[in-house]
Amino acid sequence: MTSPTSFAPDAPWRIDRTRLAALAERPARDWTIDIVDETGSTNADLMEQLRALPRERAQFDPPPPAVRVAYLQTAGRGRRGRAWLAEPGNALLMSVGVVLRRPVEGLSGLSLAIGVAVLDALARLPLSPSARPALKWPNDVLLDDGKLAGILIETAWNMPHATAVVIGIGTNLHGEDLLAAQVDDANRQVASATSGALPAALARAWSDANLTDALAALLDLLNAALPRFEADGFRPFRQRWTDAHTWAGHEVALLDQGLEVARGIAAGVDDRGQLMIDTPEGPRAIVTGELSLRLAKERP
């Protein structure tokens, strides 16, 4: 991977702070936004910040959201601890630390709500009319059936009236072929078996894809989505998510550590973000847990 010492201070892919402030006016003004060349994990950085907050006060008077962006993560990770690979300038690697005035049990569906926010941010960008962004339960954003973005949510602490969470979002912008080549055979097998999608990058639908505009769009939509979720939970996001679900109406299989544990027809999600599938035994609600979802293959 590229060494941070080779990051030119005027590299064209660097985030333009002036343009960011113009495009994402309120978040750029009201949120704390740190942009660094390299870190281990932006999620880990913000987890440490949130854990240092005075919790009794923060649950009633939360600080503004904090954003951490890195051009290179040396310990970036996705769901179930999988490595997130990205070269500097090729991906938007960001995390948002926020105290939501909801108890931890009230955060059901948050990753799906964030997926809707990412999808709506993409709609603000000048993508090709033929581009097909979609969502995959529970935390992937797809582009033309390839994995464009992943979402990882971690809880720093919870109190009776609030929960501190870090929302990590990794979005591929360029280097799709390079990224695919970096995925070793074992990870490729995991990807095809559990996620059903190999990498996709925004550049396939937006030749001028850049970190500044992508970050601005995400900040604006998160600025709208977070207070909406805080007030009403997942319910107001449900229909938008269901409409964008890539496998709606298809037979899907649920895997636990690679083994199929259930299959049925994907029938949307409920108000808690649980996947609803129609099985031969009747409707079934699936909580996120450590299960993975893929299109079902015919049984031998």
Strand order of the largest sheet: 1-2-3-7-6-5-4
In the CATH hierarchy, what is the class of the largest domain?
A: Alpha Beta
Distance between the termini: 42 Å
* Rg result: 19 Å
Q: What is the name of the CATH topology of the largest domain?
A: BirA Bifunctional Protein, domain 2
Q: How many domains make up the 3D coordinates?
A: 2
Mean of residue pLDDT values: 88
Structural class, from helix and strand content?
alpha+beta
- CATH homologous superfamily of the largest domain? Bira Bifunctional Protein, Domain 2
Q: Note the run of SSEs as H and E.
A: HHEHHEEHEEEEHHHHEEEEE
Number of helices: 9
Number of strands: 12
Detailed description of the structure:
The protein folds into 2 domains: 4-240, BirA Bifunctional Protein, domain 2, CATH 3.30.930; 247-295, SH3 type barrels, CATH 2.30.30.100. It is 29% helix and 30% strand. It contains 9 helices and 12 strands. The chain has helices at 17-23, 25-30, 42-51, 55-58, 110-123, 176-182, 185-195, 211-232, 238-244; strands at 32-39, 66-73, 91-100, 133-136, 140-143, 146-159, 162-172, 251-256, 259-269, 275-279, 282-286, 292-295. Helix 1 (17-23) packs across helix 8 (211-232), helix 5 crosses helix 8 (211-232) and helix 5 crosses helix 9. The radius of gyration is 19 Å and the shape is globular.
Give a quick rundown of the structure.
The chain is globular.
Blueprint (SSEs and pairs):
Blueprint: H1 17-23, H2 25-30, E1 32-39, H3 42-51, H4 55-58, E2 66-73, E3 91-100, H5 110-123, E4 133-136, E5 140-143, E6 146-159, E7 162-172, H6 176-182, H7 185-195, H8 211-232, H9 238-244, E8 251-256, E9 259-269, E10 275-279, E11 282-286, E12 292-295
Parallel strand pairs: 1-2
Antiparallel strand pairs: 2-3, 3-7, 4-5, 5-6, 6-7, 8-9, 8-12, 9-10, 10-11
Helix pairs in contact: 1-8, 5-8, 5-9
